[in-house]
Amino acid sequence: MRFAAALRPSVVRLADRQSRTFVPARYTLDSKKQRIRTAASMSKEATASKFGHLPRATTGPIECSLEGTGLLHNSYFNKGSAFPPEERREFKLHGLLPPNVQTLDEQVTRAYQQYSSRPDDLAKNTFMNSMKVQSEVLYYKLIQTHIKEMFSVIYTPTEGDAIQNFSRIFRRPEGCYLNIGDQDQVDEILSRFQGDIDYIVVSDGEEILGIGDQGVGAILISIAKLVLTTLCAGIHPSRQLPVVLDCGTDNEDLLNDELYLGLRQRRVRGKEYDQFVDKFVESARNRFPHAYIHFEDFGLHNAKRLLDKYRPHISCFNDDIQGTGCVTLAAIMAALHVSKVDLKDVRVVVFGSGSAGTGVAAQIADAIATESKKSKEEASKQIWCLDKPGLLLKSHGDKLTQAQVPFARDDSEWPDKEKTDLLSVVKTVKPHVLIGTSTKPGAFTEDVIREMAKHVDRPIVFPLSNPTRLHEAQPKDINDWTEGRALIATGSPFPPVEYNGTKYEVAECNNSTCFPGIGLGVVLSRARLLSDKMLVAAVKALAAQSPALQDPNQPLLPDIVHVREISVHIAKAVIQSAVAEGLAQEKDIPQDEADLEEWIRVQMWEPKYRPLVRPRNI
């Protein structure tokens, strides 16, 4: 290393929550030799080293007090066949491993062959979960190497199958299981998870991935979301905590399943439920005061209500509402750029007004208000939301959820109550943007799309419902019905479509291009709150990466294979917004753009084996 002589060790002790060992040793530049260097002569490697003292920096050796089989059974430290000879001697591994020392890349090759031999996607998902508890580095490196192929296996739709079968494929517990019958033990249970926790994902399992109430199986969605934060944004896997709040289940199949592992009772609601969530949030904040809390797959009547309750007081996020809203808004902003329509003038119809639909609507309204200086109420009038009864009207009263109320129209605007269906609304509104979050397949009929295309040059059509069989329309049909003029984004991956010899790449509105970067920005800045302006900054950063800005036939959003780089840009925008609003609590955040990017990158965990050393006596 060019500047090796100028380095001296500076140990940062971090308790690993599973092993109670200390990690890792960091390095900083010797101050005297650093002073005599000019900025012009500093290499990228040296630049990174100025942030090497940070607790999350990922260079240098890791202190490990384990040895023998205890070391091999710890997924954080285990290298398997990649342990070098000196570590095999030092940590008493001789005789416990085959003699040939392999590289991480060689391990990935073998692991991929094993993965490929599994007969179906659920078996592959189970194989990957087993690998994760053996070696985290190998697990993440394998996915990173084959991310395009494996993404649907480790996440939706295959993760939904795994969650439905949780009690049958269960092998080894991972994460934190809290149940509503043990509210008085919540704080004690959380105290068992040691170390610095940056990111918590919590679910009560009521509305999982479009498959409904899955009870205690929701622990797997919390785990899967955290896997994505590590894979996509470098959140340290040892600084995460997946949590399930088991409040019972209304799923008859689970209640009647003798193998079901959760509380075998109907869901508890009302005051007792609210007390349980309060107890969790309070205890989590006390135990992990800097942790960012990510709510996932809560039911329609709880998701927005809980987000609104806690958001003014703690750093928290709901991916179904805000994540879906952010990624969809980023795609809309890119599409508006292509179609040359100003955000302040846009007309949007949202078909399907559950958590996702209202989350998208709210995010769009926030952006319109921020960009145009309009009030939130004025901005909301540019959005028409439909659900099962048709267009949302104020006369629907108590039938409206809390999230739907801001988008309900005055009845005076819609005198013909018999014509609140989608086609009638499209005829009247003449929207620039049509979004589907209804899970009603085929809802975007040829009549609807052709009617929309009569009134705007570049119809922006997003059938977002998952899985693929629930999409409101097929991209090929949308493209044909609009004579190739539509700008399309979907909730699942689709192949390119073609019209009159012109090929158009269909964007996927994948939350994973957005929420990990937002979380990284909040974690690194230690933001007190996640504000609307921080979310809008994240959206703009994602939209700026759109390939369609350079070529309108390219997708509106970047591909998942570029997600780590995307996350850097999103995190930078979030951090800068947090600093500007006075919400950042981390000290010494760099102001220089290049330094800030390097500061972020240095703290992103990467799947690579680092040298192990015995703990030093301090």
Automatic annotation (TrEMBL):
Q: Which residues form the Malic enzyme N-terminal domain?
A: 132-311
Q: Domain Malic enzyme NAD-binding, which positions?
A: 321-579
Pfam families the record matches: malic (PF00390), Malic_M (PF03949)
The family database entries (InterPro entries) matched by this protein are listed as: Aminoacid_DH-like_N_sf (IPR046346), Malic_enzyme_CS (IPR015884), Malic_N_dom (IPR012301), Malic_N_dom_sf (IPR037062), Malic_NAD-bd (IPR012302), Malic_OxRdtase (IPR001891), NAD(P)-bd_dom_sf (IPR036291)
Q: Which cofactors go with this protein? A: Mn(2+)
Q: Which domain of life is it from?
A: Eukaryota
Q: Which UniProt keywords apply?
A: Metal-binding, NAD, Oxidoreductase
Q: Which GO terms describe its molecular function?
A: oxidoreductase activity
PANTHER family reported for this sequence: MALIC ENZYME-RELATED (PTHR23406), NAD-DEPENDENT MALIC ENZYME, MITOCHONDRIAL (PTHR23406:SF34)
What protein family is recorded?
A: Belongs to the malic enzymes family.
Name of the protein described by the UniProt record: Malic enzyme
Name the lineage: Eukaryota, Fungi, Dikarya, Ascomycota, Pezizomycotina
